[in-house]
From TrEMBL:
<dbReference type="InterPro" id="IPR025857">
    <property type="entry name" value="MacB_PCD"/>
</dbReference>
<dbReference type="InterPro" id="IPR003838">
    <property type="entry name" value="ABC3_permease_C"/>
</dbReference>
<feature type="transmembrane region" description="Helical">
    <location>
        <begin position="351"/>
        <end position="376"/>
    </location>
</feature>
<feature type="transmembrane region" description="Helical">
    <location>
        <begin position="396"/>
        <end position="416"/>
    </location>
</feature>
<dbReference type="Pfam" id="PF12704">
    <property type="entry name" value="MacB_PCD"/>
</dbReference>
<keyword id="KW-1133">Transmembrane helix</keyword>
<dbReference type="Pfam" id="PF02687">
    <property type="entry name" value="FtsX"/>
</dbReference>
<feature type="transmembrane region" description="Helical">
    <location>
        <begin position="310"/>
        <end position="331"/>
    </location>
</feature>
<feature type="domain" description="MacB-like periplasmic core">
    <location>
        <begin position="20"/>
        <end position="216"/>
    </location>
</feature>
<keyword id="KW-1003">Cell membrane</keyword>
<protein>
    <submittedName>
        <fullName>ABC transporter permease</fullName>
    </submittedName>
</protein>
<keyword id="KW-0812">Transmembrane</keyword>
<dbReference type="InterPro" id="IPR050250">
    <property type="entry name" value="Macrolide_Exporter_MacB"/>
</dbReference>
<feature type="domain" description="ABC3 transporter permease C-terminal">
    <location>
        <begin position="311"/>
        <end position="426"/>
    </location>
</feature>
<keyword id="KW-0472">Membrane</keyword>
<feature type="transmembrane region" description="Helical">
    <location>
        <begin position="21"/>
        <end position="44"/>
    </location>
</feature>
Length: 433
């Protein structure tokens, strides 16, 4: 029966190609606009680490003087080291990023600018980073300030040009680091763990132990954000300076552990108040947002993207209303055909289903057009200077969602016209034949 209804729908659409083209165009334009903005919105607001983000938390403390300000996003060196050395989380990682000059140690090798992340050994298992060669360094390497490095795949290929570089040295700044592991290019979008960088920029290239980076002259990686307060000196070393510059993340596997860690932060803050390091009074200024709360707190999704998404869906609604009007006009033009079918025994339900199949056929054609328009719209976004432009691509889920949305939209547009068509009184129409 469905095949018969599809044949009827195709025949009906062919008999009035202009009206059919207008309906397909209306659906296609609405679907193309909405899927373009929805794809971008999904990329920017999606979970950067599905399945893990609910157990990853960003501790926040307030060491600044008691004046109006938001809770700082980063930690001082003293606070980060105190939390790290307390070992109150399942896993924990200090991190600071910056650009460095790196090269292979072969004669004639040229230095290239790479992004380095100074961090601790738990970074890789905590964030689920996949290794393709070797492995991470160990906690003992952290404490021993070992000069070891993990490279991204692209940095590994650029530095070693296809040769086996595992166990080989690279020069970072003026120091040699031994390569112990290579990871897949890791670029979570957004860069939730280091929002002082571009949220949707390139990934990290070189990973080295944090304490080793602090122990080497000319390799003082301090991140992109440095917020100093109170009395500071001209010393370039930040270990004893009242400066916020370190990112710190912890993994807490259960809600009970998260509550326990929040209590630990509160007690730590009270201790620092008692010692005079934290100079405000009253209850501790602390927070422990997880990944998605952290992104929402920082307003990572640009407001113009949200606005464009609403505008696009408003445009889709207008297109659906126009399509509904065209379908109603089309179905009412066929009152004689519908009356004859009713007289021959077709039920209202069959007429209603036949009309919906025709509307779905229009939606399917509109989905093909909408997919092409969405692809064109995303190509245009990739040519823009926005930092998230390179992420604007259609994926399998978006491809499938385009057709689901187009057919669902056409069924919604066709429901009222189909209901009107199936309630046509056949006796009144047959009298005029």
């Amino acid at each position: 029966m469905l095949g018969y209804y599809i044949d009827l729908a195709l025949g009906s659409l062919k008999r009035n190609p202009v009206l059919t083209a207008l309906m397909v165009l209306a659906i296609g334009l609405g679907i193309g606009a909405s899927m373009t903005t929805l794809t971008v919105f999904h990329l920017l607001s999606g979970d950067p680490l599905p399945g893990r983000s609910g157990t990853l938390f960003h501790p926040q403390l307030d060491p600044k003087p008691p004046e109006p300000h938001e809770l700082p996003h980063q930690l001082t060196y003293v606070d980060a080291m105190n939390l790290w050395q307390a070992h109150r989380a399942d896993r924990q990682a200090i991190m600071a990023g910056g650009n460095v000059k790196a090269k292979g140690t072969d004669a004639g090798a040229r230095a290239m600018s790479l992004h380095a992340l100074a961090t601790t050994a738990d970074f890789f298992p905590m964030f689920g980073v996949s290794f393709i060669h070797g492995s991470s360094w160990t906690s003992a390497d952290d404490l021993g300030k070992a000069r070891v490095a993990v490279l991204s795949r692209s940095a590994y290929e650029r530095l070693f040009h296809g040769r086996d570089g595992l166990g080989q040295p690279i020069r970072v700044g003026k120091w040699d680091f031994r390569v112990v592991g290579v990871i897949e290019d890791w670029r979570p979008a957004p860069h939730f763990y280091e929002l002082d960088r571009e949220s949707y920029g390139e990934g990290d290239d070189v990973f080295i132990p944090f304490l080793a980076s602090r122990d080497l002259a000319d390799l003082q990686i301090t991140g992109y954000s440095l917020d100093c307060f109170g009395s500071t000196t001209d010393d370039t070393h930040l270990e004893n300076q009242p400066c916020l510059w370190l990112n710190f993340w912890v993994e807490l596997g259960t809600p009970a552990k998260a509550r326990g860690y929040r209590d630990f932060l509160a007690n730590y803050s009270r201790e620092q108040q008692a010692q005079g390091r934290f100079t405000y009074t009253g209850p501790p200024h602390i927070a422990l947002p997880d990944v998605m709360q952290w992104l929402d707190q920082n307003g990572v999704v640009p407001s113009d993207v949200r606005l464009k998404a609403w505008i696009a869906f408003g445009f889709l609604l207008v297109c659906l209303m126009n399509t509904a009007g065209l379908l109603l006009a089309k179905f009412l033009q066929r009152t004689t055909d519908i009356s004859v079918r009713r007289a021959l025994g077709a039920s209202r339900r069959q007429i209603f289903f036949q009309c919906l199949v025709e509307a779905a056929t229009v939606g399917l054609a509109g989905g093909v057009l909408g997919l092409l328009l969405a692809w064109l719209g995303l190509w245009g976004i990739r040519q823009s200077p926005a930092e998230y432009a390179g992420l604007a691509h259609l994926d399998v889920a978006t491809f499938a969602a385009t057709f689901v949305l187009s057919i669902a939209a056409s069924l919604c547009a066709g429901w009222l016209p189909a209901w009107r068509a199936c309630h046509i009184a056949p006796a009144l129409q047959l009298k005029t034949i």
